[in-house]
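Appendix B, example 12.
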Amino acid sequence: MKVGIDLLWLKVGKVGGTESYARNLLDGFYEFADENSCSFVLFLAQDNVDTFDKYFAKSTFRKVVLPIKSENVVARIFAENFVLDRYAKNEGIDLMFVPVYSKPLMKNRRIPYVITIHDLQALHYPEYFSKLKNLWLRFAWRRCATTAEKIVAISNFVKDDIIKMLHIDPNKIEVIYNPVSGLDKFVDFDELRKKYKIQERGYYYTVCSMLPHKNLKTLLYVIKKIKDQPLDIPKKLVISGIGGKSETEIKNLIDELGIADEVVITGFISNEERNTLYKNAKIFLFPSIFEGFGMPPVEAMMLGTPVITTKKASLYEVTKGKAFYVDDPYNIDEWFMCISELNSWTRPFNIVAFEEYDIRTIYKEYIKLFEVTVRNDI
């Protein structure tokens, strides 16, 4: 079976969790695929191809580079809809897998498509997008979900949302959780100590964009409350991730609250830096109210750092009830009390194992789905 994977959309360092998902998935394919039963053709753009070089050391992988750049959204959408399928046909692809909500308008009938829907954010938060982007997303989601042979939903929350919002047959939707890997490499903490002026176990950590549903403002008010209390607990918050719609507002609020010395914004960082910040944080805080999966709290728990998060959307589902939770994501006092309580704990926190997110487990689920889809399409 020859599987094509569309990666034209991947803007390196700019698409957050979807990039981590795609690369973790490829790591599983790379490690466990048997060239006698399955091989992969990666369809790449000129400005992201170099970041996938490691996969081509194995004969199970080859690349096809289209003459476009992922940064050029108009050119990329045109290529995906009117050109990609022709390339797939020329490569003798048995199945096309698109790790996002995309699928060609001009499609070869012989090639079945499997797509992934990570969430339906624009249907819940249309204010994040322009009118044109909203129209496109609504059209693309519904059309791709309707015409794809199979849909991967990354949580039961997302599956239920697809059924409810897009009215899709539940039998078309397969829930396969995100693979979580890449947690075994670190940088020297001393490097980060100097860079961000932090101490081991002397800061709280979060990984998120600055979109409103990430609820980052609440954490800033919590840090302000902690700063104003005569308590011997960490008062510093480190924030990693790409920017977002509220970036200017967030930075203004930091200044207004007088917590500029307590808040560090790292921007996009390497996995090795992120892992080190996870591992050495006092507590990982994740106040989001809308996630299709939510990898950061899972990653933090897998590195042995206690996590406080919400029960909204998929978060309770994917953390398996093993984190600490606030009932009201916007309640500053509740966050403060939970943080204070965890700071007073003297016993160590254990590493949490999530076998269901192991890349080998996820690899097997994807290959099974691909094989069934190809068989049913013959």
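Residues 359-377 form the longest helix (19 residues). The first strand starts at residue 2 and ends at 6.
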